[in-house]
Amino acid sequence: MKRKLFNCLKMSGVSRDAPVGVQCLQKFSSWMCPRLQLNRLRCYQAGVLVLTYFTYMTYHLTRKPISVVKSVLHQNCSGLAPPPGVLPTDDQWCNWAPFNTSDAYTLLGTLDSAFLFSYAGAMFVSGMVAERVDLRYFLSLGMLASAVFCYLFGLGRTLNVHDISFYLLVQAGAGIAQTTGWPGTVAIVGKWFGNAKKGLIFGLWNSHTSLGNILGTLMAAKYVETDWALSFVYPALLMGIMGFVVFLFLAPEPRLVGLAVDRASPGRQSHRSETEEEPTQVIVGDQAASLRPSRHSANSPPEEGAAGEGASEATALLGRRAGGAVSPRRALRIPGVVDFSLSLFFAKLVSYTFLYWLPLYINSSTTLTPKQSGELSTAFDVGGVVGAALAGLLADYASCPALVCCAFYALCAPTLLAYQSWGAASYALNVALLVAAGVLVNGPYALITTAVSAELGTHSSLAGDARALATVTAIIDGTGSIGAAVGPMLAGLVSGRGGSWSYVFYMLIGCDVMALVLLLRMASSEVRRIRHERRLASPRVRIE
What we know:
mainly alpha; 19 helices
């Protein structure tokens, strides 16, 4: 029986290192439908997209409850009826210790910072680890650890834990565990889809963050007013189940199932005539120097006799050893990595301030209950789904991700100002402005962390090697995560001590402008490239 199974797997190209679930499915399909002919690559690609989509959805599912529960950890007790035995002078009786003090907003901001700073610091290490281990084990173990920490936060209410250090340690541990998600999923999708245009694919795929936020908000809001411990328990349970599914069925790379992905990207070649030898253009910037086409270039077809030779160390711009992982220092030399990383710092600062403080802001600026505030905040995430898909579609069409991001940033600042000024005027206007803000805030954030990261991780300077995917993704997302850590902390300090949310919005608008400024160099490079390609594409008249 074992020999028969091995022969079946050998004929299908499935490795013994493939997930157990994939091996069982391959055996079952060969037994039930031996003559069924399917495009195996497309089937596996669809399966990987679905699995990684729901994988990272659960990562965000377990991040969101804290933003909903904040509104009951510290709230205005004057509008509630106190139970018997409460002193009339006790205006903090309804709040959960240690958040029953006047500096509760600062403490809540510290909780966010514990998660986000540990996330940002561990992200750089996580990317390097992801390149050197099996990504299926990396993701499944990370999901299990994230689920445990999410459960522990809810357990604090069940066990009546009122020590701030407990919640800080849980949040810090959760931040470290959550770093396994992004480098792992982006690297897997990048390996399965090569260098084809991925803006729309990644834009739709990146809606997992918004879907996770929406589901996490709705699950947490259901129990926030009765037993907020369950707001953490159920998301943790769902993530643990999904981690088991990933362990059984996720194939981290095509090689394990006997497939190969073409890493060429002909659609992104520069237009040039047959008699001209133009430098190969890099899609994401390229101000310093262009790569001359050669038999070693990742953007030009190999010459005869060079099929097994590949790109030598001399031709790779990074100069790394063949078969070795790319170091962070060398990954930073890829054109565009620094620019997009710094821009993402401010973009993610804005996005995560909304992620962690929006339900509380709605609750304090309107007459809505904590549950209703959490439900209304999902309008921002609905806009994020649209924004991610729209930004990816525009980037695919124009092949200019920096220009697309700049356009979104330019429209975002007045939208944030409009929401701060008129968002509380009516429920319908609040929803409309939240959706618009979600589109413009999350559009460039999603584009940079997905399609741009994958593009840079398989940059032509790497000679077509995708080994830098996890490192580049970790550098870009890790830099953005530092901004994500700073934003909620500053929001807690500004709103708590300044006494006004207006200053928080002014801070967010300023950060949006900074994100725009940091991408102007890349955008101008893309404009020059477009003009150059148009000159080459225009018909020329030769005068004899």
